[in-house]
């Protein structure tokens, strides 16, 4: 599964907003500069985020964007879904009885990829913007595998 730039950039910008807000609106120009993201692209993303209640906008001098909820209450999955980024690993519509193959059949690995998409969604739903800002997403996935004395990858048990 590959997350498009839409989802990745939205999360990057929201983490930036959570980091730099301090209760005051943050301009998209500042976010664009810090994160090296096109301002026009951010404007599109923040339009969707605002429409979906993830951020609020403040007009006028000193205006910009604020989190609609606290960073602790804003989930990464909500950000990704708000910008219309599906969280799935199959070509099929999630939960659909029709499949991804030509004759409306499900491929042999459909259930595997659909469950992977579900697990990704569950993980992203468990992570808040505050978790990312405070660097609490340091996982142990790198410790699941290590190389043996001959350089082969072996699972830690």
Structure description:
This protein is mainly α. It folds into 2 domains: 1-85 and 129-157, Winged helix-like DNA-binding domain superfamily/Winged helix DNA-binding domain (Arc Repressor Mutant, subunit A), CATH 1.10.10; 88-126, no CATH class. The chain is built from 6 helices and 4 strands, in the order αααββαααββ. Strands 1-2 form a two-stranded antiparallel sheet. The model has no long low-confidence stretch (mean pLDDT 84).
Tally the beta strands: 4
What's the overall average pLDDT, rounded?
84
Bin the helical content.
Answer: 40-55%
As a whole number of angstroms, the C-alpha radius of gyration is 19 Å
Q: Report, as a whole number of angstroms, the end-to-end distance.
A: 26 Å
Topology of helices and strands:
Elements: H1 5-20, H2 28-35, H3 39-51, E1 55-58, E2 64-67, H4 76-82, H5 110-126, H6 129-133, E3 145-147, E4 153-155
Antiparallel strand pairs: 1-2, 3-4
Helix pairs in contact: 1-2, 1-3, 1-4
